[in-house]
Amino acid sequence: KDTLIEGNFTNVVVEASDVKVDIHDGIIDSLSVGGIGSIIYANKNTSINSTIILAQADDTSFTSAGVLKSLVVDAMNSEVNVNGEVETLYVREAAENVVVTVAEGAILESFITSVPVTLDGKGSVNKVVADSKSYVTGDMKEDNARPLADSKKETVNAAVRAPSKPKKITRTKTQQLARVNNKKAEKSKTSKQKKIKTTGKSEKLKTDKEKPKEELKNDHSKGDPKEENTKDDTQDENLQDEDPEDEGPEDEESQENSQDEDEQDEDAQEEVPKYEGNALAKEVLETNLDFIYETIKNPVFGTGGGEWSILSLARGGYDAPEEYYDLYTTNVEKEVTKLMKNGKLHRAKGTEHSRLMLAYGALGKDITDVAGYDIREALADFKYAKRQGINGPIFALIALDTHGYEIPTIEDQANQSTRQKFIDYIIDREITQKSGEVGGWALHGNNPDPDITAMAIQGLSPYYDEQPAVKNAIDAAVNWLSSAQSEDGGYLSWGSENSESVSQVIVALTGLGIDPHTDARFIKNGTSAIDNLLTFAVADGGFMHVKPGGNTGGGAAAGKVDGMATDQGTYALVAYNRFVNKQNSLYDMSDVVLKKKSSKPNKARNYSKIEVSEEAVKIVNDAGIEPVKNLSEIKENAQEELLSSLDKKESTEVYDIAV
Q1: Of 263, 484, 506, 594, which is least packed with CB atoms within 10 Å of its CB?
Q2: pTM, whole model, 2 decimals?
Q3: Which helix (H) or strand (E) holds 505?
């Protein structure tokens, strides 16, 4: 029940409920509190980099008498006592009934809240940022001797603000709550606009001042990226400038309508469960699913405008018409027919097969019959699967485990792939740095790379509970990813802080059941991995590879929408959204029903009118099937073959293509 922690720690996690934890005389990088009713006290000789009180840790009391860089509160009925120095305290949407007390002589540099909070005490608060002026109440509100700093909206970064427009995404009840408040504001706006028509010009001027302002929630970053075309799209307003006396009284009818609307919205909030994730991330996700669908008109087989885009749409629950996916599979089969002459989509890249399996698996399509080819077969050759390096086995595992596909058997047993071979290959390449620290992976060299490390975790995570070696490797990799996270919540790869790296980390963490937005290990200076990714989003859709003026690391141009960054950023947000809604992870597709192709003849074709030429004889012979001796033999047997042996791919496909 009583625990004393002394000394220096990288991570301290409190999971038990109703415990008292005293932290004395040490330095802690990350403190996470998840137990209900916990009492946490850090004495004056303690320095903590980041602390988070998780949503499940209701009724927690936290006191910091030392130095604390960042404190995030998600829990309800929480009590926070600032007795020392706290740089940033952020109370997020999930929290309710939070009381913050700043003791005399204590300093709270920056206080941010997205919900109503009671702020008491006689200490110093140098900056207050609230989503609404009315959100901050308490004794400090009336302290005339030391007035609160001006409360104001943070400048909204146009690069991460999602535009409001019709969405095609299908929403569950859980996903609807984030829109309730927006709808309320829209109703209020509509009501006021109707009133304008029956009042004078001066009333319209007042209503213009009352129009709802766009808000950026969950933005913990300091300042905005220097980006083109952001000035016109941003607002920087002082909430205290809004004088309630300027608004004027509403007429009785308007008040009654407002009351009715409030009651309706209260009912709606009762019916729709609260969305527990980052609301802005959800909006940006919906914008980018729209963006992908609207810009990729003709999805094809390939890295760009192909499988990754299809994966985002399908796993994101986007309501695309069936014809869209039919167009994609038609394009794929044409390309597969061209490429698979030697049984492989690429002479060296097994990931071409894995990528196609991911998209088809997300759609519930049959990967064992893509234009007559079983896409798994190439990956059954271990020598081929590992030819491109560690990426090959990683994505082979990911693809095979989406639906628990069996690995086909090949004749060369020495090179027969197995899941264990893929696992061992990855584990054997875990990096040991010169310092002796073990953890993480890279394409080459002895320095871990966040992208490859995250991807390796994605491939190994299904085996975390089954194999101790996998568990140890993943735990070490997660610790390394936490330590490698930059001060603004992002990641550097090849000397460049980019969106793709943090995207892969988000996918990896959600696959392990780790929240990339609330886990203290992945929050730096109050900014989570999710927050960082959102800074790369562009208002009208798409993600940047790097921000304006950033080092591209040899990748796409800085400050511009990039296809690969957009795909990865979007499916990372899909992974996060699925995690928040307690759905299967991005790559666990057991929730998708697989549909086998029908073997019935296509009645739309008139096989009686088949005509065969000398060229057809050559095609059949070149295909490697039992050679046909002459033209007459094809003429005599073609129709019979097609009608009676449509399920025999070796015969049917060749004759069909030849004709």
Answers
A1: 263
A2: 0.56
A3: helix 499-511
